[in-house]
Amino acid sequence: MGFLSVVVAAIVAFAIGAGYYMALAKPWMEASGIEVGEDGNPKNSGSPLPYLVSFVMILLVSGMMRHTFALSGIEGAGKGLISGLGVGLFFISPWIFINTGYSDRPWKLAIIDSGYAILACAAIGLVLTLL
Length: 131
Prior knowledge:
Number of strands: 0
Mean pLDDT: 94
Strand content: under 5%
Order of helices and strands: HHHHH
Oligomer: single chain
């Protein structure tokens, strides 16, 4: 589990996010209150900054998961997948729900965003233990 596995895991998680949010674009935009242009796309969709920041944050998550897996002796695809699921479900998702609750945003948004966190972390865990 080296640097390359961290980068590949982040790329896989980012790609999953692209597909996930394309599939749930309309309900996510409604729940998040994103301003939409006449073309149906978010008004800020021309800026690469959110995508760059997202990838860097996913890279940080992937790197910390690799570090934690190495310290914990997590090896093998099954353990990586389950551990990744646990990170998404029991570490990241609760914080998403906390932030959603305090910002008085729709719970539907927390469910959508948590779903991505769970899937992405499971994929990161799997990739980290396969490479």
